Amino acid sequence: xxxxxxxxxxxxxxxxxxxxxxxDPVAAAYIAEMAGADSILLHLRSDRRHVQERDMEILRRxxxxxxxxxxxxxxxxxxxxxxxxxxxxxxxxxxxxxVTTEGGLDxxxxxxxxxxxxxxxxxxxxxxxxxxxxxxxxxxxAAKLNADGVMLNARHFAAAEGEVAADRELLRLQEAARGxxxxxxxxxxxxxxxxxxxxxxxxxxDVAEIRAGHAIVARACLVGLDRAVREMKEIVG
Length: 237
Known about the structure:
Helix content is 49%, strand content 17%. It is an alpha/beta fold and 237 residues long.
């Protein structure tokens, strides 16, 4: 069964919306861990719109489960990783205009830059994951760069309207996960996952980890974070 990684970016977003001290992602991480989260995931964006260095530094000292850092595919990623010392670094594309991460890296187009970043991060003894679309060409390109894993973008599946579209997008994720597994890449799936869509992707045999955040924090506003995490953990298995 896949592991569950909890993203707490939305907790930090709520805090930063008022430039306040609460809610604190560090406290939220403790609750999530006690509720069964297998790892904690935070995106340290270049514009620092939600998660701050202070969050990552304290979490590195306090969480006992793996700590995942998402960061832009830039030279800043290597500096951020060196400071935070996460268990895994996930490189993602960033656009200042986007509300949240929209899609995967174009590994084929940016192979030169990504090769340097992956090599640098791996030399620092951190595992590297690349956020990609569920596309076999992109996955093969990630394998050629010696990435440790890929994170498949589930946003198209989670937002699909109608059974036919949802089945088509789920099949893409299944085939992508199978292909990545054959290339010895660790497979995680995330972005846009809801509770129902998380249940569907968790059933894919080759998936090692489900990454979810917004849906859990939104649910937590109604029932509390402990219950929201436990409900997702039960769905994931």
